[in-house]
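We treat protein structure as text, and this decision shapes the records that our systems exchange. The tokens are whole numbers drawn from a learned vocabulary of local backbone shapes. Below, we set out a record of this kind in full and without editing:
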Amino acid sequence: MFEQLTGVLRSLLRQKEGKRAEPSACVIDAQSVKTSTSVPATGQGTDAAKKIVGRKRSIVTDTLGLLLAVLVTAASVQDSVAGTHLVNTVATGHPSVRKVWVDGGYRQHLVEHAARLGIDMEIVQRTPGTRGFTRLPKRWTVERTYGWLMFHRRLTRDYEALPARSAAVIHLAMTDLMARRLTGENTVSWRDPTPRDQTQSTG
């Protein structure tokens, strides 16, 4: 149900932005986050590269940064494993997609798998020796999406006992964001001061 609602709003917003309802290109990326005590140990893992114990959120977005698909796994799951599932989902649910960009964490065998599905996958590498945030061509849109999601307090870490619930919360957050963009309302963030905070600060 949440996926269907996300799909309807995404199509409307894409058309509002002058795009076709269905995308022809997308971006895949993964984010490892810490979990709360409510998450069973069996559903967690360690992302050795980022030194995070928790879960991994792998998402697909269009070139506007709007969500196409999400997969929540233990943080120990390799990007290419989750990526294979997502590429299959894109090929089935969004047959108009013919191009996808990923980062260096995705292996050559995934590029070959995507090609068999009629999708051209391009690995966008960071420049060797680069430190800190770098705006990489095409890939920056999905990184911005993660930034949007983190404005929702429920997503600052994973609180959900089941991965499916975590995915649902991500869909809800994206639904909120797209609905506000369609209606012209500002996106509310938990970081924004409350009216009471504003009164105290001016008082």
Notes: Residues 2-202 form a domain with the Nucleotidyltransferase; domain 5 fold (CATH 3.30.420.10). The CA atoms of residues 132 and 173 lie 27 Å apart. The chain is about 40% helix and 20% strand.
